[in-house]
Amino acid sequence: MIEFKDVRASYERSLPILKGVSFAIRDGEFVAFAGTNGAGKSTAMRLVNGLLKPDAGEVLIDGVPTTALRTSELARRVGFLFQNPDRQICCSTVREELLFGFRALGAADADAEARVDAVIEEFGFAPDDDPFLLNRGARQLLALASVAVLEPSVLVLDEPTTGLDFRECEKVMGIVRGIHARGATVVMVCHDMEVVADYAKRCIVMSDGRVVADGPVFEVLRDHAVLGRASLVPPQIVDISLVLAAESPRLAGTPVARANTVEEMVEAVAAEAGRAGAGAGEVAGEAGVAAAGGAAGEGARRGHCASVRASKSRRVP
């Protein structure tokens, strides 16, 4: 378990970053941290793996304060993926990069070699490639693999999809989902609310060094006050659903106004269409037109893998 108890932290004492942050993350959870730049999300992640120690309060990993643990001890439990893979990669071949963590921990034995071989096969790497000659997406995958191969019980991701195209984003997050399915706790800082909605189960929103919301993902992403305070835009389907609920009295109490995913929206529109009477047909038509228009508008407005996911891989039939 990860626990923050009234944590205050700064890089310079005169410039506080975290201003009394408290939360607990249970083993096996998949939690996303969202919020504006400078809100304190990345600082919180560095406190989790011991790269930074709190000025006040406590950060506990499995009940032990990080101040009582060496960073090397925390590295055995907490794997950390930096936003920029070039700050993490340091070896001259892919294989050496994957073995680096084991060597740093004094555990580069036959079992480590076997795990490296398995990860090379799983990720499709060429073991003798120069990491610095790989493209951005491949370097991010390698950085993730170098952490995953150590099989930490906690995986911390700082903006894992930044700079990736749609396919790279899907591959990275698919691997992260697999790591989570095998029992790891995943804690992810992410600005892409589509990724947050697709993968996380819980969302903690930060603003100005404080936690302003903490709850199930879609509960948080439907809270207008929280979104406004943290300058967040909800995922596309949630956005459409919220607009429909606000602007159409006929839809406000229907499943259309509560849909969070493409699948839920399709089912909701189909249900409205199936209701008896012309009025219901009008409601379903209104919902369908709004959904299609909203999808087109969002697709034009958003970049990165969120917009591609909406326009290509998850289009409403």
Question: What features would you describe in this structure?
Answer:
There is one protein chain. With 317 residues, this protein is of the alpha/beta class. It folds into 2 domains: 2-229, P-loop containing nucleotide triphosphate hydrolases (Rossmann fold, 3-Layer(aba) Sandwich); 236-313, no CATH class. 46% of the residues lie in helices and 20% in strands. It has a 6-stranded mixed sheet, sandwiched between helices. A 4-stranded antiparallel sheet has the order 2-1-4-5. A hairpin with a 2-residue loop joins strand 9 (202-207) and strand 10. Mean pLDDT is 85; it is low at 291-317.
Oligomeric assembly? single chain
Main structural class: alpha/beta
- Kindly report the spatial arrangement of strands forming the biggest sheet: 6-7-8-3-9-10
From N to C, what is the helix and strand string? EEEHEEHEHHHEHEHEEHHHHHH
Low-confidence stretches: 291-317
| CATH C-level category of the largest domain | Alpha Beta
Distance between the termini: 42 Å
